[in-house]
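Why should sequence recovery work at all? Because a backbone constrains its sequence more than one might expect. Tight turns favour small or flexible residues, buried strands favour hydrophobic ones, and helices have their own preferences. The token representation captures these environments compactly. In the example below, the structure is given first.
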């Protein structure tokens, strides 16, 4: 009896993982930086919270719109390329067969085997074979605009809610320090988990997002302090 071993590969998660990590990271960094900047300017606790909530809503919508437009452009390009391949298969299937066989020869197969592989794959799914091996369009990595937009918006909102909640529970005089420390902890955790899910180094993933988050918070704190002094 033949048993098939199921292997889990990180590439299967690249589509939603990229959008989710980007959204959550942006939510934490931008909202924490906004809260810290407003607090450094000497704003009241209520004003800080209003700014944070506004930043959460605006940021989530911006992420959704930006991701949708970006991934839609990719999806349009994929559909256009597939339409060309579909037309070429209908008008000159023999040339397409030679083209596919040449790809396999370039990958190391001898001419006879390459011809046989191309013949069998095109008999099974000609468009799918050309999409995968000629155009590099794989089903697991196909552009899905709505999925990417929703994932980015939801991830941003969840990420932004963390520093916002930190500001809400922090004493008035400790808003900056509490939000900064907790947000850096959130970023390190997110970066580590994302790296682990993607098969990369946990420590490297935690370090790279924490560094850029700390830099963003420091800059906005400086700007807020400057404006606070000027007013």
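From this structural description, the recovered sequence reads:
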């Amino acid at each position: 009896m033949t048993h098939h071993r199921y292997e889990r590969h990180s590439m299967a998660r690249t589509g939603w993982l990229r959008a989710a990590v980007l959204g959550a990271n942006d939510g934490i960094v931008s909202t924490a930086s906004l809260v810290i900047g407003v607090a450094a300017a000497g704003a009241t606790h209520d004003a800080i919270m209003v700014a944070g909530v506004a930043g959460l809503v605006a940021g989530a919508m911006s992420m959704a719109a930006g991701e949708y437009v970006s991934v839609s452009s990719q999806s349009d390009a994929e559909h256009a390329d597939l339409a060309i391949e579909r037309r070429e298969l209908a008008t000159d299937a023999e040339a397409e067969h030679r083209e596919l066989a040449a790809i396999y020869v370039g990958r190391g197969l001898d001419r006879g085997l390459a011809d046989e592989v191309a013949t069998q794959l095109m008999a099974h799914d000609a468009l799918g074979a050309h999409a995968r091996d000629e155009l590099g369009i794989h089903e697991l990595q196909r552009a899905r605009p709505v999925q990417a937009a929703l994932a980015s918006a939801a991830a941003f909102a969840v990420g932004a809610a963390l520093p916002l909640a930190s500001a809400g529970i922090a004493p008035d005089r400790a808003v900056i320090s509490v939000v900064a420390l907790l947000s850096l902890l959130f970023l390190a955790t997110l970066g580590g988990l994302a790296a682990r899910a993607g098969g990369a180094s946990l420590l490297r993933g935690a370090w790279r997002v924490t560094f850029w988050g700390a830099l963003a918070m420091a800059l906005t704190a400086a700007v807020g302090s400057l404006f606070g002094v000027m007013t």
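A few observations help interpret the result. The chain has one domain: 13-37+55-222.
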